[in-house]
Amino acid sequence: MLFDLGGVVFDSPLDGFTRYEAEAGLPADFIRTLNATNSDTNAWARLERGELSRDAFISAFEAEALTAGQRLDGLRVLEALKGDVRPVMVQALHRLKEAGFLIAAVTNNIGPMASSERGASGVLELFDVIVESSKVGVRKPDARFYELACRQLGVEPPEAVFLDDLGVNLKPARAMGMTTIKVLDADAAVTELETHVGIPLR
């Protein structure tokens, strides 16, 4: 089982971006659009691969925003990433763990995680493997990221179920043979996962 974190186990960072855009008077979806522009070489991509320090990212990201016609606070954007734990997902993780499933967290992130972050106390410990883009130097949707996760978990891609909230991340995993679940609603996603694992998850 492979779980994305933000937007799956935790509330989506996109919600935080939306709130910040409203507070700062930015156009709707400006940050998401900025992150999708030159998506493999922009400041966000380089930060998630561990190629930029936080300060270097802030300078580069603010410069990219200015080029796109808007002024923003890069630090506030990073702070918007924090999200609350989704209880239904945590319960599902507990049930999977109790049933003996191997579970990996696969996340594009900006620095090594600790269990104290984002209300994650007790949650990160549920994962057998945690694959972080900032540590391994590759990020979703690069197929190498999924290959690494499967290798660390000791499974072949066709044996894996992968949950993510972004279709662009699911597409290469599906091409590798994984079963994929797009998480638009946490409860609905857990219901779909139950059909694949054959046990109740709440």
Please characterize this protein's 3D structure.
The chain has 202 residues and is α/β, with parallel strands linked by helices. The protein has helices spanning 13-24, 30-36, 43-48, 54-67, 74-79, 87-98, 133-136, 143-153, 167-175, 186-197, and strands spanning 2-3, 104-107, 129-132, 161-164, 179-182. The chain has a five-stranded parallel β-sheet with strand order 3-2-1-4-5, sandwiched between helices. Strand 4, helix 9 and strand 5 form a beta-alpha-beta unit. The two termini are 16 Å apart. The mean pLDDT is 94.
Keywords:
single chain, 202 residues, alpha/beta, five-stranded parallel beta sheet, 10 helices, 5 strands, globular
Which helices and strands, and how do they pair?
Blueprint: E1 2-3, H1 13-24, H2 30-36, H3 43-48, H4 54-67, H5 74-79, H6 87-98, E2 104-107, E3 129-132, H7 133-136, H8 143-153, E4 161-164, H9 167-175, E5 179-182, H10 186-197
Put the structure in a nutshell:
The chain is of the alpha/beta class and 202 residues long. Helices cover 46% and strands 9% of the residues.
Helix segment tally: 10
Order of helices and strands: EHHHHHHEEHHEHEH
The main sheet orders its strands as 3-2-1-4-5
Uncertain stretches of 5 or more adjacent residues: none
- The first-to-last residue Cα distance is 16 Å
Which class do the helix and strand fractions yield? alpha/beta
Helix content: 40-55%
The number of distinct β-strands equals 5
> Approximately how much beta-strand content do the residues carry?
5-15%
What Rg do the Cα atoms give?
17 Å
Average the pLDDT over all residues and give the rounded result.
Answer: 94
- Globular, elongated, flat, extended or rod-shaped: what is the shape? globular
Biggest β-sheet strands, sense, barrel: 5 strands, parallel
